[in-house]
Design a protein that fits this description.
The complex is a heterodimer. By secondary structure, chain A is mainly beta. Chain A has strands at 5-7, 10-14, 19-24, 32-38, 45-50, 56-59, 62-67, 72-77, 86-96, 98-106, 110-115. In chain A, strands 2, 4, 5, 9, 10 and 11 form a 6-stranded mixed β-sheet that branches. In chain A, strands 1-3-8-7-6 form a 5-stranded antiparallel β-sheet, with no helix packed on it. Chain A starts with a strand and ends with a strand. By secondary structure, chain B is mostly beta strands. Chain B starts with a strand and ends with a strand. The chains are: A mainly beta, B mainly beta. Chain A binds chain B through residues 31-32, 34, 36, 42-46, 49, 89, 91, 93, 95-96, 99-109, and chain B through 4, 33, 35, 42-45, 48, 50, 55-56, 58, 90, 92, 96-107.
């Protein structure tokens, strides 16, 4: 059974703190790793799609790294703001046969609460 | 560009009934995926459609089915509803494959009584 694990499950930080979360996924047969942000009462919003080992992506104060050999990705938020409060989901693309067939397996998410 | 739309947004049904949910993808997106979100299970993949064909399927019973039309719009059907089917159903579209960035709709909240 393929599993995507995210830690911690929840996090409470003060405004201005920097924080990071972990996503662990199967290291064999890697194709792509997605990160999404899901704010309450909104739809999940894509942050990054990462495909190469050692990849680093950045979007404003949020960045992510990828290690496909050991099966983990880190998401960093620098100087957290209250508007960063959301659930952060990672998803592992598990191919089956060609790169067009397979399924996206989501972790349970890390819920971040940033206090002003 | 308009985003992914889903109708209806809220639905209340009773056990044994059936339900049809609709999803209109972003224009130009050919892959449409459906997900179920429940508090205990997180986001679970239901199925993906591409060019009117189901290309991938998650681990759900046959009561869950779907289809895609020639304009890429998709419908999802759940027959013989059970209490455990109460969930948020999200549709997402992407350019060609589920491995591409998923653009999610607002979801349909289904409550089964």
């Amino acid at each position: 059974i393929l599993n995507v694990e995210q830690s911690p499950q929840s996090l409470h930080v003060q405004e201005g703190d920097s924080t990071n979360f972990t996503c662990s996924f199967p290291s064999s047969n890697f194709y792509a790793l997605h990160w999404y942000r899901w704010e309450t009462a909104k739809s999940p919003e894509a942050l990054f799609v990462m495909t190469l080992n050692g990849d680093e992506k950045k979007k404003g104060r949020i960045s992510a790294t990828l290690n496909t050999k050991e099966g983990y990705s880190y998401l960093y938020i620098k100087g957290s703001q209250p508007e960063d409060s959301a659930t952060y989901l990672c998803a592992f693309w598990h191919p089956r046969g060609s790169s067009n067939t397979g399924k996206l397996i989501f972790g349970q998410g890390t819920t971040l609460q940033v206090k002003p | 560009k308009a985003g992914v739309t889903q109708t209806p947004r809220y639905l209340i049904k009773t056990r044994g009934q059936q339900v049809t949910l609709s999803c209109s993808p972003i224009s130009g997106h050919r892959s449409v995926s459906w997900y179920q979100q429940t508090p205990g299970q997180g986001l679970q993949f239901l199925f993906e459609y591409f060019s009117e064909t189901q290309r991938n399927k998650g681990n759900f019973p046959g009561r869950f089915s779907g289809r895609q039309f020639s304009n890429s719009r998709s419908e999802m059907n759940v027959s013989t509803l059970e209490l455990g089917d109460s969930a948020l159903y999200l549709c997402a579209s992407s350019l060609e494959r589920q491995a591409d960035t998923q653009y999610f709709g607002p979801g349909t909240r289904l409550t089964v009584l």
